[in-house]
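Input:
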Amino acid sequence: MASIEIIFKIAGVGILTAVIHTVLKHAGKEEQAYMATLAGVSIVLFWVIQILAELFSEIKTVFKLF
Amino acid sequence: MEIGTVVGLGLIATTLVLVVKKERPEIAVLLSVATGVVVFLLLMDKIAAVVQVFTDLGERAGLNSLYLGIIFKIIGISYLAEFGAQICRDAGEGAIAQKIELAAKIMVLILAIPILMAVLESLLKLLPE
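Output:
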């Protein structure tokens, strides 16, 4: 069962990637800043896909969509 | 006070989206997806109860369970399509949202064909030979 925690987790990762991106960019490491952003987005996408799968299976069972 | 949970969740999520959106718009989109999923999962037990009540009523009225099943499938498809299309539209992709809605309409139409055929059959029975 997905819970409210996941929203805080995603927001935390978002703020963290924003900060890391800014710091790395100011340090002149553009490529690493881009990579950090990409990593953050991938992690969040991973979580979101998991809860989306949960949502789809719940809808399938409730509305008998087979 | 379940409604309090949902409203509070929505307000918190909105604030977090506003914080994240300026720097990382892509994560803001995923955050709103997650919020939608969590709200729906909170409602899931109640929706299941409502569906159960309607199934019981249909059985008591002697309704063909095939038709009721089709109606539930249509509701499920519409909900899912609306969910996806709304997220695409929020992210500024109106074109993709419209394609999702088109697909949902076609699928609903296909599911509705048995009902349409049944109506036509009964009409033909009414017609004099």
